[in-house]
Amino acid sequence: MNVKKLISLSIAALLIVSVTAGCSGGQPTQKSAEQKPPEQKLADTGPIKIGFLGALTGNVASYGINTLKGMKLAVEEINAAGGVLGRPLEIVIEDNRGDKTEIANVTKKFVTRDKVAAVIGDPTTGGTKVAAAICQENKTVLVSAGAVGPGVVEIGDYIFRDVVIDPIAVPAVVKWLKDSLKWKRVALIVSVNNDYSVGQAKLFEDALKKEGIEIAIKESIQDGDTVFTSQVTKIKKANVDGMIAPIYYTEGALLMIEAKKQGLNKVFIGGDGLLSPVLWELAKGATEGCMVFAGFSPDEPDEITKKFIDKVKQVYNEEPDMFHAQGYDAVYLVADAMKRANSADPSVFKTALAQTKDLRGVCGVLTILPNREPLRTPINVLEVKGQKFALKARVPVTAPQ
After folding, report:
1. Distance between CA 71 and CA 59 in Å, rounded?
2. Residues 204 and 160 reside in one and the same domain
3. How far is residue 251's CA from residue 364's CA, in Å, rounded to a whole number?
């Protein structure tokens, strides 16, 4: 064989090897075509994360602690029954301390790092508004299990709540005060640096005017105040039938102590801001007869609510309140929407959430109205007797016309 022919054969062999290698690299094998990246498998079958947004320390910790306890019970039950869409629920827990800056930081962590499908919380109106703006921007569903003031769901179509809201509850309660307690003159106490208090006080003013009940005196306080001598002295001189106090339990307890000290023996009534056993623990007997309206009562429960009450007592050795119940119901609300939408993608299941109708929970029957506000009925008026909130009245509520 001559040299020229040998070179030609060598070049041909090299070309065959080159072409064969190119074909092998350009076409995936059957095995590699069927394999999915591990990340995709994790996204499809891993836990569905729900962020808990609330305070576990600080002045409003009682709300957050009990909300989280209710959420944990619901997640435990749902996971024991097979989870949602074949996937377990997982709560991501952070303590926002009731501080708005920290609420913003925690919410950003949930939606950017933890990639939660939904956020449940904050139990306060002011905190919810901070978190809602961030969730809406990041297309993450938020369900507040406590915010009752105005201006929450208006933030955007990813924002919901599962409570008896103040614009519906306050007029019903004021009518009950007029018809059942025959109140004609009241004192109104508002905490001017608290969004919840300012919003609820305005609703009370409008409802009292409509029912013909006079606001004989209006007194301002601030969250963090500890001395209320002046306010109570003025209220005592006003000769009122009762005192309306849409404030939180810390300041509420101190106000009641001062009222008892000055011999002002009139009933306080407020919203769920006063709903905490810390109220009577701080006030040392000065809270007797105080009334609170809320979306849940452990008295006279139906079968579903009784099962929940027994579970709270068994697991936590305590009587459940509205925050336990609303945290519990909020998890089931989100899970129900995911199941109906057949998706844990917030951009998909938010539509099913907005279409929720007659969902039975431990707080009653829930329907999401066309404006995405919740309608729950009834509203419960609770009265402090000893160291317990006892049911005083059930007041029916209807959708606003």
Report:
1. 21
2. no
3. 30
| Tokens linked to 292 | 């609170």
**Among candidate residues 67, 1, 60, 135, the one with its CA nearest the CA of residue 312:** 67
**Considering its fold, how many domains does the chain have in total?**
2
- CA nearest 149: which of 160, 165, 138? 165
* CATH number, domain containing residue 49: 3.40.50.2300
Q: Report the pLDDT averaged over residues 272-299.
A: 92
Strand partners, 207: none
What does pLDDT average to over the chain? 89
Question: Exposed, middle or buried: residue 221 (CB in 10 Å: 0-12, 13-18, 19+)?
Answer: buried
User: pTM (2 decimals)?
Assistant: 0.77
Which helix (H) or strand (E) element contains residue 299? none
Please name the helix (run of DSSP H) or strand (run of DSSP E) that holds residue 265, with its range, or none.
none
**DSSP-assigned states of every residue in 315-354:** HHSS---HHHHHHHHHHHHHHHHHHHHT---HHHHHHHHH
Which of 102, 77, 100 has the alpha carbon at shortest distance from 88?
77
- Kindly report, residue by residue over 128-138, the tens digit of the pLDDT: 999 999 999 99
